[in-house]
């Protein structure tokens, strides 16, 4: 090993900018995910299968599906986000990447935000893109489908963000998956209510701008608060390991 | 000022204070609750609409009230745990979370019992009942997380984060559940929100609420003492305390 | 390459296992990077160590010793700021690490037992990701660093196809390009062959001569001239 090229030691005063390192975190997560494409499909398949259960298990009647369709899709999307959350920090925790992340000289909450954004891009966004197909299958009307997709587009990042707190809290615990669901589901309820409520309003022909604005407010709140809570939880979980 | 704060945080000091305080809390609480409940169940006037069945509010309202304020108290303690790392604060959270869970369950149970004669069904997706149910989930999550983490300090801090996340969410949950409720069931009439409750009704109600607070204080002290004894079992004062109790 | 090494003097461990005398030390190196006073750490019911006081000076290699379970890794994680279940005082350049967190993290390199190598990525991608947030390095330099750790020809092979030792070497390549003044290395010799061990020893030696500070935990019998030792485990204070 040659040590000849190294500069003299002096304290490093300037570092990499926040945006640059967020980008680095994001692109690494994307790269890792695309090396294992099968894993990307799993939440999507789960989403489709859960939706399929409802016509089979409850009723294939058009009237029922049209009324319950938005709720079914929302619950299925929520569950499949929940299912994928366990992986958000788990692999990084196991291979030590998380320790390096926490020790990066940038504010941790920004890095957590970048990771959560990557998580949403890989799970939430595909769900939103798949939703119209399933919307047609549960006989939703065109307008309702559009509104549904819009609510999912605003709502699923909130799910990822809130979920990141639970994923960070349960890191390294036995049966973390179940525990994660227990902690997070109650916190998902407002998003679910407003997500489905918006579609219901649209179906009745009521204006939905106000509801969408409210969902947007949830998103803003989640973006500002969740990364802080998640990074605090990450530090605690790492300290324990 | 800091000295007092640190003294307050000392488990040994708290243990002594709690021992002296507890008989008063228990006696006062039981007295007030007895007064409130006996008055409420036996002597308060009938409700013109619901007859005698409304009388369950003398149990339902105190439990529901306390179930919610215990969570708020836990959130305050959680802040103290995270900011000042005060040992007593996390002892408090750990000790009262199951109490909160039981109170929430009691509130739900009495609500269901009350629902049977008034609504004709045990359960109704009423806004209040639903938010209490979610509160029950939140308590359950807190307890489950606490049990799942072996290391005491990490458990305390992780639980504190969860409690704080929960407390930020509670108003949002409450608001959204109420909105959802009006969307689905516009006809529900609110029972406990009659502003014209006569004094013969609200005075005993107030007494039983206060009484339950005191009993809760006693129970919290008792459970905290137990938790402190377990945690500090290695220290000399605990050994001396236990030995003194034995002889 | 510089004259720092000529000023290096052997450490004298006096009664206390931690106090280190460095008479005649140059002004360049006088300021300790890390100072620990009365460190104490409990895990569960057990006290791992207490009353641990030491300074990490620039230009030194410090070896943390002790049997399994005495808290070597824990101590290193405490120094890195990963574990905060400790009490006592720990200063970075005489200042609080909490307040100067960013500066501390910029100047400290920690290699853990699990060094943060993604099995799905290639050594190049791993190294790039690990350095990107600290100090971006040109790909040619990364390539050379990997070659320098004996991974020439493996730079673009996914890490999961490499052996355990080779994966460790990916992490070690960071040391060839790192310019953080303080290195905290946990079990660097694990899964490394004899040649590699010698190379790392030389590297650490050079690093100290350059003026860097290195703290290592290891079971390997690392002997470097002028090495400081922190012995954990056992309440006996006459280890030195």
Automatic annotation (TrEMBL), chain A:
Highest taxon in the source lineage: Bacteria
Keyword terms: Cell inner membrane, Cell membrane, Cytochrome c-type biogenesis, Membrane, Transmembrane, Transmembrane helix, Transport
Cellular compartment(s): Cell inner membrane
Signal peptide bounds: none
Chief location category: membrane
Transmembrane segments: 40-58, 109-133, 145-171, 178-202, 208-234
InterPro entries for this protein: Cyt_c_biogenesis_CcmB, Cyt_c_CcmB_bac
Topology of the protein relative to the lipid bilayer: Multi-pass membrane protein
Role description: Required for the export of heme to the periplasm for the biogenesis of c-type cytochromes.
PANTHER family for this protein: CYTOCHROME C BIOGENESIS B-RELATED, HEME EXPORTER PROTEIN B
Similarity comment: Belongs to the CcmB/CycW/HelB family.
Name of the protein in question: Heme exporter protein B
Origin organism lineage: Bacteria, Pseudomonadati, Pseudomonadota, Gammaproteobacteria, Pseudomonadales
Automatic annotation (TrEMBL), chain B:
Cytochrome c assembly protein domain ranges (all copies): 13-184
Transmembrane stretches, start-end: 21-44, 56-84, 91-115, 127-146, 158-177, 201-222
Residue stretches in coiled coil: none
Pfam family, one: Cytochrom_C_asm
Keywords associated with the record: Cell inner membrane, Cell membrane, Cytochrome c-type biogenesis, Membrane, Transmembrane, Transmembrane helix, Transport
Membrane-topology descriptor: Multi-pass membrane protein
Cell location: Cell inner membrane; Membrane
NCBIfam families from the UniProt entry: ccmC (TIGR01191)
Function of the protein: Required for the export of heme to the periplasm for the biogenesis of c-type cytochromes.
Family listed: Belongs to the CcmC/CycZ/HelC family.
Stated name of the protein: Heme exporter protein C
Organism the protein comes from: Marinobacter albus
